[in-house]
Amino acid sequence: MEWMGYEPKNIFFASDYFSKFYEHAITLIKKNLAFVCKLSKEEAKELREAKKPSPYRDTPIEENLKEFELMRVGYYDEKEIVLRAKIDYSHPNPNNWDPPIYRIMYTPHPHVGDKWCIYPLYDYVHCISDSIEDITNSCCTLEFENRRELYYWFLDKLNLFKPHVYEYGRLNLSYNVLSKRKLI
Q1: Rounded to whole angstroms, how far apart are CA atoms 91 and 53?
Q2: Rounded to an integer, what distance in angstroms lies between the CA atom of residue 74 and that of residue 44?
Q3: pLDDT tens for residues 58-84?
């Protein structure tokens, strides 16, 4: 950014908002819009392919709150349990079929260390971060176009500010490397 003559006023990291993400997850659980799911990755995939919801989808709110707290304090192993948004299995967009929004990872985070062992996932974090930071226009490449409904679902259900989302095609310049993966 500095090379292009721009010096940012502030630099934010999603980890700056881990407490807020957690609070919003609690809100979703209390509104019966999120649930703790104990299916293995393979079991969840099998049910998704059959367009069938998790048997944990109708777990009572109080039990979900208790299980999410157990996730937070490190009671469960990695990949043993996730928090899912409760959306709509009849929706034509598979991204809205109860996507996972929190998982367990026992890897210290570069900015917050080992304070958290539950990590929010991108589809959940992206929209809330944009809202917290008062982003007016969120620009994403076209591969995220089918996630726009999910982006707005979280903001609607949490009653948060909604930025405008725009998708764009990737810019490629001849004789220049723009891909982070290729730069590495």
Answers
A1: 12
A2: 22
A3: 999 999 999 999 999 999 999 999 999
CA-based nearest residue to 28, from 136, 78, 100, 90: 100
pLDDT digits (tens, 9 = 90+) for 95-152: 999 999 999 999 999 999 999 999 999 999 999 999 999 999 988 888 889 999 999 9
Q: Is 172 helix (H, G, I), strand (E, B) or coil?
A: coil
Q: How long, in residues, is the chain? A: 184
CA nearest neighbour of 98 among 82, 116, 119, 118: 82
Dihedral over Cα of 80, 64, 147, 104: its sign:
negative
Mark out the alpha helices in 50-162 (DSSP H runs).
61-72, 122-132, 148-157
The two three-digit tokens of residue 82, written as one number:
């996730």
CA 31, chain centre distance (Å): 18
Residue listed under structure tokens 């079929």? 97
Which of 1, 7, 22, 10 lies closest to 112, judged by CA? 22
Give backbone dihedrals phi and psi of 34, rounded to 5 degrees, phi first. Answer: -150, 150
